[in-house]
Write a structure and sequence with these properties.
This protein is an all-alpha fold and 68 residues long. It has four helices and no strands.
């Protein structure tokens, strides 16, 4: 799997978790301490982000971050 496929798959997981909780991108971004625009590009798989931000998003969504 290449990097763009990984980013898209991760973004899809975030989108699904967000939608299951009936949250908007803005709500997740605020809880994660990110701008709405930055969260949106992560969710669309358009940017590679840091583990720190991934952890913040996972915490905001109440999901576990599993690396590896």
């Amino acid at each position: 799997m290449d990097s763009s496929t990984n980013k898209k798959a991760l973004g899809d997981k975030f989108r699904i978790a967000r939608e299951e909780q009936n949250l908007t991108q803005a709500q997740v971004a605020k809880k994660a301490g990110l701008s709405t625009n930055y969260y949106a590009v992560i969710e669309r798989g358009e940017v590679k982000t840091s583990v720190k931000y991934l952890e913040q998003i996972c915490k905001a969504l109440g999901i576990k971050l599993v690396l590896g």
